[in-house]
Design goal:
Layout: E1 2-3, E2 14-16, E3 22-24, E4 32-38, H1 43-59, E5 64-70, H2 76-85, E6 92-94, H3 101-104, E7 112-116, E8 122-127, H4 132-144
Parallel strand pairs: 4-5, 5-6
Antiparallel strand pairs: 1-8, 2-3, 4-7, 7-8
Length: 147
């Protein structure tokens, strides 16, 4: 996981989640946001999902949110079964129109994970699967900061 060289504000976007709710990144100021760009057909994405869910459940009441951004072209027909299989409860968006990828891409590969601090600045990013062991210290660090 790499520290962002310059803590620039994360690019804002607004999307409709799979749940039907609206998610606007700028509305998350004051929270730590982990944004994970992934696909159901990606083995490393499948590997990291249980730990992303575990971290979400552990810290969601402390000002932490995970946003899954699926790039599956088949959309909901493959993402919903994946979420059920892995018991994913964090917010999920299917980016079939490129709303998020146009702002954050092109990525070097998937999964790609970004961590945005409480002030809305990009703090960390990585390409490839991440583990709880890598993520948790960074999440704790950012949760401890003032917004």
């Amino acid at each position: 996981m790499h520290r962002a060289q310059k803590e620039a504000p994360a690019t804002d976007f607004e999307v409709t989640l799979l749940s039907g709710e609206t998610f606007r990144l700028s509305d998350q100021k004051g929270k730590v946001v982990l944004m994970n760009i992934w696909a159901t057909w990606c083995p490393p994405c499948r590997e990291e999902t249980p730990e992303l869910e575990e971290l979400y459940r552990k810290y969601k009441n402390e000002g932490y949110v995970t946003l899954g951004v699926s790039i599956d072209e088949q959309g909901e027909s493959v993402v919903r079964p994946f979420m059920e299989e892995f018991d994913v409860t964090y917010p999920m968006y299917i980016d079939t129109d490129g709303t998020v990828m146009d702002k954050y891409g092109p990525t070097m590969g998937i999964p790609t994970t970004y961590i945005i601090g409480r002030k809305g600045n990009m703090r960390y990013f990585t390409v490839g699967a991440v583990t709880k062991k890598e993520l948790e210290p960074r999440i704790k660090e950012l949760l401890a900061e003032e917004s």
